[in-house]
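FYI - complex with 2-acetamido-2-deoxy-beta-D-glucopyranose, inputs then prediction.
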Amino acid sequence: MYLSTLITLTLAGAACAKPIKKIKRQTIQDTYDFIIAGGGTAGLVIANRLTECPSTRVLVLEAGPEPGVVANYMYPGGNQNLAGTAIDYNYYTLPQKNLNNRILPYHRGRGLGGSSAINGLYYGRGSASVYDHWVQLGNQGWGWDDLYPLSIKQTHFNPPNLNDSFDHSFQTWDPTAYSNGELQIAFQGYVPDSNVGFIRAGEAIGIPIVNELNNGNNTGVKQGTGCFDSRLRRSSSYDAFYKPVQNRTSLDVLHYASVTSIQFTKGSNGASRATGVSFTDQPTGQFITVNATKEVIVAMGAFNSPQLLMISGIGPQAQLSQNGINPVHINENVGQNLNDHCVFSIMALVEQTASTSSMSVSASTLEAAQQQFLDSLTGPYTAPSGITNGFQQLSNATLRAIGAQAVLNAGLVNQSHVEFLYESLFYPSGLAFLPSSGGTSSTGGTSSSAYYVPQSNLSYISLTASPLVALSRGSVTLKSASIFDAPNIDPNYYSNETDRVVAINAFKDLRKLLAHPAIAQFTIGPNNGEVQPGLAHIPANASDDTIFDYIKANTIPNWHASGTCQMLPEADGGVVDSHLRVYGVQNLRVCDVSIIPRLPDVNLQGPVFMIGEKSAQIIKEDYNLQC
Ligand SMILES: Cc1cc2nc3c(=O)[nH]c(=O)nc-3n(C[C@H](O)[C@H](O)[C@H](O)COP(=O)(O)OP(=O)(O)OC[C@H]3O[C@@H](n4cnc5c(N)ncnc54)[C@H](O)[C@@H]3O)c2cc1C
Ligand SMILES: *[C@@H]1O[C@H](CO)[C@@H](O)[C@H](O)[C@H]1NC(C)=O
Ligand SMILES: *[C@@H]1O[C@H](CO)[C@@H](O)[C@H](O)[C@H]1NC(C)=O
Ligand SMILES: *[C@@H]1O[C@H](CO)[C@@H](O)[C@H](O)[C@H]1NC(C)=O
Ligand SMILES: *[C@@H]1O[C@H](CO)[C@@H](O)[C@H](O)[C@H]1NC(C)=O
Ligand SMILES: *[C@@H]1O[C@H](CO)[C@@H](O)[C@H](O)[C@H]1NC(C)=O
Ligand SMILES: *[C@@H]1O[C@H](CO)[C@@H](O)[C@H](O)[C@H]1NC(C)=O
Ligand SMILES: *[C@@H]1O[C@H](CO)[C@@H](O)[C@H](O)[C@H]1NC(C)=O
Ligand SMILES: *[C@@H]1O[C@H](CO)[C@@H](O)[C@H](O)[C@H]1NC(C)=O
Ligand SMILES: *[C@@H]1O[C@H](CO)[C@@H](O)[C@H](O)[C@H]1NC(C)=O
């Protein structure tokens, strides 16, 4: 049954006995087989796969707009200009007690495509051992041998254009790691010499040059792969998995539709069953409830998925009672165990050609770079700020020597331990920092500007470290029972002492990388061009405490929030089982980054695209959908 067809505004309805017909901006039904809450990275993969079965009716409800309202999302060089736009939630963390109480901006995609429409474009899959560990934790079917074929299936590799003057030595790939899938993978189009220098310099800190990182061993360095199509446009979940199938009659996708709660009914057996969701249709202002005959699938990301569960009555006792929420199922684990990677950088002054900074020196240079990209797919606008990442595996001996025995004890040996990132500009710049909410640091300030203020007419590169062990865990809790109040986000970075020693070691390695001649040759000025922190602030012989002062004042997220609805046995901290079914209720799953029980040793969109694919496979099997 259709509630209404086109927009109908019937005053006559008021005179009838029936309630006033709902005013709709487009046709939607009131019952679907599956309702997907959140049209982001994982959500649109699932929508695509489930509607491969033509009789399976799927509704996707997405809070934000279509990403094209911020057209720069498509372009590699536009990547620097997405923060704070209409497709970013622009969240903030709680004051971070181990980071001088700094409050950090936390970006999150808000719109079709979700964070895959605003992220840094790097594509990776991580090490096989991580997923095999998920299996050991109780998640049968989630090993590397299960996931890798799905990842191959959903991707396509676009070979680089070799007809230019760049050094293509490290643009290598294993063709068997990709197929004819939807998600488009490619190298960046513009490769500054210092980028190639970064790859060669990996040897200074034991990072070998390898041919491929996406086939199960994520230790090494090469030219990084990004989510780009053959015309170097972003391949987001929206572009890859939604646009090609948008005309399927079994698929309805509403944007500007914020899900406000999950509806439950109690069956005769006493179990609560999800029957549908309520949402606010923003263009009409209406509150609408839609039913799902099979399931509600929550894919709202690491912050909003646990928030929706809690608002709907599934969560810690205290969270529900403090906010006056009727309990459906008490589970103390919902929103807990937030697990994230974070980063800090050092910055160096370099020759103009070694950087892409000069592209942004004025409005006219930026306009020219953009025009060159649009005309000929060349020039600095074809490069995102950084997708060349080196992954370092520390030896057992090193881990012991730096005081990271806990990494061995936790079994995190057979993987990379630190990600080193190269950026062809000053990263992060001031926008990434907020003043402290009370703390002080040894430098007397709390933002990066206490160290150095980048000059708009000079050129820089940045070297960034992101410890991948990440034993610290934080939480997502409610500010109120409304989905429109941002949740409290506490990544709790560096609460685990092991994360600190790994980070301090990584800071020392950043300076070794910068000092390697392959990079140092492009720098200007003393100390390999290092302008931040500079030796005046952090001397070469600085104590570990002094180094950690710098890290505290300069850490920002690597945007890998996960774990808030972990896939684990409930007694071990879980919220969903290995079929992603939410404990304690029926017909409800969570299928996104929040189910990750232990972080992969890589950036997360590759893993999340795999999770989307795997989720759809599980759901099809559970309902015996043959397509
Ligand atoms: C700034 C940034 C840079 C990053 N860089 C990289 C990178 O370079 N490489 C990499 O691999 N990974 C990167 N990541 C991480 C990666 O993009 C994310 O881990 C991944 O996209 C998360 O996917 P998801 O499906 O779980 O959530 P999302 O893709 O965030 O999707 C969640 C969706 O749910 C919607 N939603 C939320 N609340 C509601 C509601 N109430 N009703 C309806 N819809 C709702 C949101 O609007 C969003 O569209 C980055 C992330 C960010 C934010
Ligand atoms: C490393 O992990 C892979 C994948 O789980 C496994 O096949 C291999 O045996 C492991 N190697 C060691 C030395 O543990
Ligand atoms: C390579 O590029 C040059 C200059 O941009 C152009 O003249 C030439 O035709 C190109 N060759 C091929 C094979 O595309
Ligand atoms: C992964 O690759 C690195 C670098 O080549 C190598 O040292 C390591 O032994 C490899 N690990 C596995 C499990 O094969
Ligand atoms: C979907 O339908 C529209 C309108 O009929 C059409 O313009 C578009 O090309 C179709 N898209 C695809 C991918 O088939
Ligand atoms: C939706 O489900 C609820 C609960 O089962 C039911 O009361 C309601 O009638 C259903 N609405 C429609 C339109 O099927
Ligand atoms: C490193 O330590 C782990 C855990 O103690 C052990 O399993 C592994 O064999 C060790 N590796 C080497 C090369 O000694
Ligand atoms: C950059 O601008 C400053 C301030 O105008 C000026 O002093 C300096 O010479 C400029 N440097 C370069 C390299 O253009
Ligand atoms: C740090 O992590 C290890 C391994 O998970 C754990 O044993 C230890 O208790 C943690 N320490 C703190 C302070 O959380
Ligand atoms: C570092 O070196 C300086 C100058 O040589 C010296 O004064 C200082 O005591 C040293 N600091 C440490 C922590 O060793």
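Residues 208, 210, 217, 219-220, 414 surround 2-acetamido-2-deoxy-beta-D-glucopyranose (ligand 4) (CB under 6 Å). The domain at 27-72+107-158+237-338+479-493+561-626 is CATH 3.50.50.60 (FAD/NAD(P)-binding domain).
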